[in-house]
Amino acid sequence: MIKDRQVITAVIVTVVLWASAFVAIRVALPGFGVASLSVGRLLVASLVLVVAAPLLGVRRPASGDIPRIIGCGLTGMTAYQLLLNAGERSVSAGTASLLVNTAPIVAAVLAFVLLREPLHRWGITGLLLGFAGAVVIALAQGTGLTPSLDALLVLGAAIAQACFFVLQKPLLTRYRGVEVTCYAMWSGTALSLPLLPALFRDAPHASTQSVVALLLLGIGPSAIGFVTWAYAQARLPVATAANTLYLVPFLAIGIGWAVLGESVHPASLLGGVMVLAGVAVSRKTPYRAFPAAKPTMK
After folding, report:
1. What whole-number distance in Å separates Cα of residue 277 and Cα of residue 275?
2. How many DSSP H helices and E strands does the chain contain?
């Protein structure tokens, strides 16, 4: 149970911002293309973090960590943004949030393969259940037995996020979570700069609603959300922090329904429950391959 009011507030802010991000992407996409929305959001978030960095006590990273930091930016920011935005062209906000929650499961597999971290019996059971849920969601978005391409793109975003989890783990032993977030955000933004012409092309024609959604994505979920998450995570047990993130997809479904009138296919909802159950079951192992499910950019 969380008793500190400031920590509770930080958790609530994080969950609400990350859940609303899936809806804001759907609102912004009609005015911006996939590329322009990705680079625009990253630019806004980076600028906010540049201003906040001195207040947060962000240190300069060691030169030897730069290659890993670039890898974090490429996977957790640039690739994640492009794949998620592309997928949400047709996938609803709630369904996208359910698919993204497969990231901790993929990360556990990568940790087993690349970092030799153990998988216990419960971990294997959770992985199988989570992957089965992801398959159900992908098929529910498609036709017949053919999965939706956009749903597969969102699943690709979850895989990119999982790679980020693996890459950032050694960094978290030397830097605070908010520092790793800043490094990844800035490097991911730098890698996305070749997409700037698309932003310059789309911005003048985007509706006010789309522009506001893009700004809110950069300032809210991408900047403030990660700062509040780092604050809460530093003051909570790993399991407690992780469990709060189970609320994100269901809140995203509710916001999507209230704001956009979206509904989630019953099969997608069933698959989502399977994914979340898989993540919960995998955490019953005495070995923790990863801290919490820490979605980078919702």
Report:
1. 5
2. 15, 0
